[in-house]
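Hi Y.,

Following your request, here is the sequence exactly as I used it, all 300 residues.
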Amino acid sequence: MFLPFSNGSLAEGLLRNRGRLRHALASYHAGRLRRTLALFLEDKWRPSSTRAVSDYRISLTSWRPRLPDLPLVLLTLLNQTLRPREIVVWLTATDHAAIAEPIRARFTAFGVRFEICADLKCHTKWLPILEEGHRAPFVICDDDIVYPRNWFGALVAEDRPDAYVGAKCHRITLDPKGLIRPYSEWEKQIGPGGPPSHRVFITGVGGAVIHPERIAAEFRDRKGLMESCPRADDIWLKLAHMAAGVPCAKTRYRFPCLELPDTDQTGLAVSNVDRGGNDRQMIAQLNHFGLKYLIVSFNH
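Below is the corresponding structure, written out as tokens. Let me know if you'd prefer a different format.
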């Protein structure tokens, strides 16, 4: 019922642009997911049974424009070949109330936990679960992606003690003076291979594994993150791991990134990438932390 191509460079290549083919594929899979959702709510369809259950949780958030499609994404997360221990969805009180009780009840019966929390923008996907006191590693993901069935298992299988790992990554490029080039000039969607590096930049859209002990107290400070980086959790988590001396690594998994139709118009790509928001927030963060983390060598 989901992506016929769960992995592979061909699928990854086909989905690199935002053209008609990409939109057609997204519309096709959204239609199938909506039909499956109707069956799921009537108890006429259930996620594929598997005895393989991971110790890792999945944590994500959503907001009002995305709520109609959130159940579709949750279906793809429930139907993984390796089941997560739990799926936690963090919502403001208003957004939580906007999801119909029968939908919440149905997903809750299959291991999804809907929690009410403060509005921390994109940081809601990772900070509240840390504040709950969880010490075990967990996976973060986005609320607008059709996740292939083997995505979760492939991601946690490559978790490692010496790196922050993710399935979709860019490479930071430097100018001749060794300064970071604008985000628009980075090497996008790099392939697997190579050792962990501080120049690898993980994007949350493909999922990433968070180890709570790597996120220092100063990076959990709500006031600081909302003042300097309210709309770019990818950058905030990148600097948190740099501060901890933990490089990033791209998994061997080639993530076929497919957003649900039109969700890119309500997401962070418009402000962060198309309008230069990532550059502004990177500068804001470096100013906020007094440039002290630039001691990290980007040549590694």
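Strands lie at 57-61, 87-91, 112-116, 138-140, 164-166, 169-171, 200-202, 208-210, 248-250.

Thanks again,
Q.
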